[in-house]
């Protein structure tokens, strides 16, 4: 037997283990929990929206949030993070044109050292929520997130009925351009593989994750976890928030969204590349060893199967081809549910190795940018050094 055969068998065994033993990461049935009676008293909610130069997406997102019909008291605080494109003025105009929930537009003080811009804006918004009312829940939602009717009510009902402290949804991203269709479903699939939703949702599990675009957090739980300041330097703020809440004894839940959509366009490869690479090395805790392990792992699990299948067929090494094809088939089978969730043909599943290669290159590029001192760049700001608030 050749070396390629042995490696392809290892890849096949890895895929069997991932499919059977890795928390059912490939399933797409984790949706906002239902069941249980609705609250007899609907708690007050404040939605906090950090926004920096978001004039291009606000007309598609903010009106949907302001239009939420909620049985209790609810309002929106939009934190204009020193935008230069008229974000604040546009937000006020949208609120005036489509009356609904009350909107407050506020601007935080200048960004201090040790904070990421989004988390500094969130902290300011949370403080404004506390000063102006007695909100029991905070909806932390991004400026590009559109909420379909009933979204806020369903989130609060789930949190109250199931005694959760953090209810988070992975917003459905756009899949309109060719690159979006190729990369976005895989992006969510890889995230679920890294943080299996079912495992994260178990109270006793060490896995904890959330989606920053839409996270409803109980204010008391956030304070118990140390507030936004506890994760002030986190580049991957959603996962850090879930860990902080869970570590402090809170119950968290994460799933795929049915009523929450991102309206941010990614028309080409470049913006998608930046979206992934800006935080990929931070996800690896800036560790060269973890980077090496990740590159080797991606190559083994995603690249070896198609290489073994094609090379085996061309060389007449049928056992090698069989092992490669079997691993490739299991891989495609686990990816199929995510494609269906995004309304894409299951026939696209065999393309996953190519997308995985792109992600491998994005991860390496993320490390290279960090070593060059550019770090995690986003919205005109660069965070060049690891900033961890443990």
Automatic annotation (TrEMBL):
The chain crosses the membrane at residues 289-312, 318-339, 351-371. SUPFAM superfamilies: Nucleotide-diphospho-sugar transferases. The keyword Transmembrane helix applies. The keyword Transmembrane helix applies. It comes from the Bacteria. Pfam families: Glyco_tranf_2_3. InterPro entries: Glyco_trans_2_hopen-assoc_HpnB, Nucleotide-diphossugar_trans. Keywords: Membrane, Transferase, Transmembrane, Transmembrane helix. GO terms for molecular function: transferase activity. This is Glycosyl transferase family 2.
């Amino acid at each position: 037997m050749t070396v390629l055969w042995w490696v392809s068998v290892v890849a096949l065994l890895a895929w069997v283990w991932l499919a059977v033993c890795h928390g059912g990461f490939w399933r797409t049935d984790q949706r906002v929990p239902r069941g249980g009676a609705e609250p007899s008293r609907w708690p007050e909610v404040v939605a906090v929206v950090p926004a920096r130069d978001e004039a291009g997406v606000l007309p598609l997102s903010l009106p949907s949030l302001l239009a939420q019909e909620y049985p209790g008291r609810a309002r929106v605080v939009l934190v204009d993070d020193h935008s230069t494109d008229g974000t604040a003025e546009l937000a006020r105009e949208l609120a005036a044109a489509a009356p609904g929930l009350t909107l407050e537009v506020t601007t935080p003080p200048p960004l201090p050292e040790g904070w990421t811009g989004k988390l500094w804006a969130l902290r300011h918004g949370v403080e404004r929520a506390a000063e102006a009312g007695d909100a029991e829940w905070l909806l932390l939602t991004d400026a590009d997130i559109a909420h379909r009717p009933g979204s806020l009510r369903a989130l609060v009902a789930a949190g109250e009925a199931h005694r959760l402290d953090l209810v988070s949804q992975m917003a459905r991203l756009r899949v309109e351009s060719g690159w979006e269709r190729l990369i976005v479903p895989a992006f969510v699939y890889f995230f679920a593989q890294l943080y299996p939703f079912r495992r994260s949702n178990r109270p006793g599990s060490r896995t904890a994750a959330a989606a920053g675009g839409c996270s409803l957090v109980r204010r008391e739980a956030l304070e118990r976890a140390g507030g936004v300041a506890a994760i002030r330097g986190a580049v991957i703020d959603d996962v850090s928030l879930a860990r902080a809440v869970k570590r402090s004894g809170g119950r968290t839940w994460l799933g795929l969204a049915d009523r929450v959509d991102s309206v941010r366009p990614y028309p080409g490869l470049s913006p998608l590349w930046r979206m992934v690479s800006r935080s990929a090395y931070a996800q690896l805790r800036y560790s060269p060893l973890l980077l090496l392990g990740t590159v080797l792992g991606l190559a083994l699990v995603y690249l070896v199967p198609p290489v073994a299948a094609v090379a085996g067929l061309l060389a007449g090494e049928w056992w090698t081809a069989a092992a490669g094809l079997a691993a490739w088939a299991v891989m495609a089978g686990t990816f199929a549910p995510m494609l269906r969730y995004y309304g894409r043909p299951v026939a696209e599943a065999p393309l996953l190795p190519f997308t995985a290669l792109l992600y491998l290159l994005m991860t390496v590029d993320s490390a290279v940018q960090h070593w060059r001192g550019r770090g995690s760049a986003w919205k005109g700001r660069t965070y060049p050094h690891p900033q961890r608030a443990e």
